[in-house]
């Protein structure tokens, strides 16, 4: 099972964050901390990306710019959109080496900052919006429509053939040698299972059975929730579409070990759910 299956140490204080005065008081606490995020989704770090850089806020609280992530123990943590300064990293680059609670903080911070950058205007009437609920919502100043951070569900599937080989494929835009398990977005009015069958048929002409949920991972660049599944191919047949996917085949564990050692295969970064699922398959613990 994936590492995201447990509860988070971050208390989002949803029952209190609507109170702007209460949020402002947290900002003024001596132990308050601020995580700065850039417009490209990188965040302030130290020690080569092994820890978050979390200084104490030193400016006046602005509820339209400073968003409350929540409390870690008794420490209030905020985030803000900022220009790059000093060491910054992305979740893709350093998510695997952050402590779990710091990874959670970075994920929420990047998600919120990215959403606010694109939610300044109401989708109903075009009016300007302002921040409410400590940064977890916006409201239109003209029509009163409330907006909430979006999450786009996507399925990612580790597909095994009858010989327990894993399907890996390469997108045309990827560097030579890079490959991963298959993924795709859930469309409107579609269940997760329907999305899996549609995406895998469209991209690789794979007929599946024995779908099982495996785990999930928030992926805030831009705003996805990756929902991991395992599945079996009925006959081991695969034929990529030649558009989104340009290569795809089933690999044995020995094939993967040999190609990776030779530099011919580049697998997903270890911060991703794809990497965790592939590692579980290699260890014989995926199912």
Q: How would you summarize what this structure contains?
A:
This protein has 287 residues and is of the alpha+beta class.
Compile the SSE list and pairings:
Elements: E1 10-11, H1 20-28, E2 33-37, E3 43-46, E4 51-52, E5 67-72, E6 75-81, E7 88-89, H2 91-94, H3 100-117, E8 129-132, E9 137-140, E10 146-147, E11 152-160, E12 166-171, E13 182-185, H4 192-204, E14 208-219, E15 224-233, E16 245-251, H5 253-261, H6 273-283
Parallel strand pairs: 2-6, 11-15
Antiparallel strand pairs: 1-5, 3-4, 3-7, 5-6, 8-9, 9-10, 11-13, 12-16, 14-15
Describe the structure.
With 287 residues, the chain is α+β, with helices and mostly antiparallel strands. It has two domains: 111 residues, Nucleoside Triphosphate Pyrophosphohydrolase; 132 residues, Nucleoside Triphosphate Pyrophosphohydrolase, CATH 3.90.79. It has six helices and 16 strands. The strands form five sheets. Strands 1-5-6-2 form a four-stranded mixed β-sheet, with helices on both faces. A four-stranded mixed β-sheet has the order 13-11-15-14, with helices on both faces. Strand 14 and strand 15 form a beta hairpin. The model has no long low-confidence stretch (mean pLDDT 95).
């Amino acid at each position: 099972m994936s590492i995201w299956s447990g509860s988070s140490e971050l208390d989002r204080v949803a029952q209190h964050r609507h109170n702007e005065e209460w949020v402002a008081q947290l900002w003024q606490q001596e132990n308050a901390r601020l995580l700065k995020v850039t417009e490209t989704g990188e965040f302030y770090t130290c020690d080569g990306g092994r820890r978050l850089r979390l200084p104490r806020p030193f400016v006046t609280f602005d509820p339209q710019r400073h968003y409350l992530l929540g409390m870690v123990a008794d420490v209030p943590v905020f985030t803000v959109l900022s220009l790059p300064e000093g060491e910054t990293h992305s979740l893709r680059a350093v998510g695997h080496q952050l402590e779990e609670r710091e990874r959670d903080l970075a994920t929420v911070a990047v998600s919120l900052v990215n959403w606010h950058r694109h939610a300044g205007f109401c989708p109903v009437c075009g009016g300007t919006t302002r921040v409410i609920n400590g940064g977890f919502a916006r409201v239109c100043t003209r029509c009163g429509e409330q907006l909430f951070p979006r999450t786009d569900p996507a399925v990612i599937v580790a597909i095994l053939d009858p010989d327990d080989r894993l399907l890996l494929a390469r997108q045309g835009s990827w560097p030579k040698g890079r490959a991963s398990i298959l993924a795709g977005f859930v469309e409107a009015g579609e269940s997760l299972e329907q999305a899996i069958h549609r995406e895998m048929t469209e991209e690789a002409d794979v007929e599946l059975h024995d779908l099982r949920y495996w785990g999930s991972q928030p992926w805030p660049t831009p705003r996805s929730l990756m929902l991991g599944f395992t599945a079996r191919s009925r006959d081991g047949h695969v034929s990529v579409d030649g558009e989104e996917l340009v290569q795809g085949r089933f690999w044995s564990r020995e094939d993967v070990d040999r190609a990776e050692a030779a530099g011919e295969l580049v697998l997903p970064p270890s911060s991703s759910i794809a990497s965790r699922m592939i590692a579980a398959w290699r260890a014989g613990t995926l199912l």
